[in-house]
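BUG: 3D viewer hangs when loading the predicted structure for this chain

Environment: internal workstation, default settings.
Expected: structure renders.
Actual: progress bar stalls at 90%.

Input used:
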Amino acid sequence: MNDIYKLYHNDFGIAFKWKDGHLKDTKKIQLIFRNAGLSITKRQLNQLLECTYDILENTDLCDDCKSNDSCKALLLETPTPMVSFAMSYIEIKNMKDLLKGTLFQIEMDTLLKKNKMN
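Structure tokens produced before the viewer hung:
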């Protein structure tokens, strides 16, 4: 874990960047959740967050589906047209938290660096 900079994590997943000098792309954010991993840009991270908002605001689910983590009734589209994830309502909410927390940390790091406080 010494070769990563953790941006944010929750019970659902983790977001991090590879530290400089590592063989991986240090400009992209690594998003790991369930059995999946995405290597995406900040722009794509924002797009994915918008997808979570869209699906949570525009999908009518019964109360049972909203409280049952095994009901994978929602299809979360991603910025990559060939990739989407079947998720439960609870997982989508956890994904939204993971994305918002990650973007907050990125913005905070940028602000601190800009003001030479980091």
